[in-house]
Amino acid sequence: MADDKDKPQPLARTLGGNESTCPVPNAHDKTNEAHYFLHQMMEHYHDCDRFRYSLSAYLQAARAVTLLLQAEVAHRKDFAMWYAPWQQKMKNNPDLQLLNSERVRVVHKETLVPASTMFFGAFEYGKEKFGFTPLPLDPMQDSVSALIQSRAMFDREKYPLVSPSRAFNCEEYGLTRTWSLPALKGGELTDFCTRTFASITEVVSAAHAWCGAMFEPTITCNHRSHEYRALRESMVCPEIEKAWEGPPTERVIPRAHELPLLLFPFENAKSLYTVTQKRIARGWVSNWRSSYWRDKYISMLVFSIGGRRLHSQNAVFFDYTQARIEPAKRP
Question: How many domains in the chain?
Answer without folding.
Answer: 3
